[in-house]
Amino acid sequence: EVLLVESGGGLVQPGGSLKLSCAASGFTFGAYDMKWVRQAPGKGPEWVSSMRRRGSNTIGTTYYSDSVKGRFTILKDLTKNTLYLQMSNLKPEDTALYYCATEIEGRPFRGQGTQVTVSS
């Protein structure tokens, strides 16, 4: 069974930092592209960042949306089957439910998500 479990969200002040984790199981973690998506209240899902499966043990080719480029970093640790999203200089508009996702053999999978709230 494919499982994706996010953690690390919380309440943070503007300008602060958080590191999200996504623990993966039930599939060969390093063999598939992974991504982070967020959904703010009343809005549709917004792609945040992706990491291609090819690459070194800790980082493959990465992509970021313009809204987070330069502030967020996507990382993976193949030894722990975990995807990370290091977020810095957080803004109120970053408030959303963040979840990790992948596609395996044409089927989409995602976790339940972790809430990030940026507010003073």
For the sheet with most strands, the description reads: 7 strands, mixed
| Radius of gyration using CA atoms only | 14 Å
Structural class: mainly beta
As residue ranges, the low-confidence spans are none
Strand content: over 45%
Q: What's the total count of β strands?
A: 11
Helix content: under 10%
The overall pLDDT, averaged over residues, is 94
The H-and-E topology, N to C, reads as EEEEEEEEEEE
Oligomer: single chain
- The shape is globular
Between the first and last Cα atoms, what is the distance in angstroms?
A: 40 Å
What is the number of helices? 0
Topology at a glance:
Blueprint: E1 3-7, E2 10-12, E3 18-25, E4 34-39, E5 46-55, E6 60-64, E7 72-77, E8 82-87, E9 96-104, E10 107-110, E11 114-118
Parallel strand pairs: 2-11
Antiparallel strand pairs: 1-3, 3-8, 4-5, 4-9, 5-6, 7-8, 9-10, 9-11
Summarize the structure in words.
This protein has 120 residues and is mainly beta. 0% of the residues lie in helices and 56% in strands. It has no helices and eleven strands. The strands form two sheets. Strands 2, 4, 5, 6, 9, 10 and 11 form a seven-stranded mixed beta sheet that branches. Strand 9 (96-104) and strand 10 form a beta hairpin. It is globular and about 40 Å long. The model has no long low-confidence stretch (mean pLDDT 94).
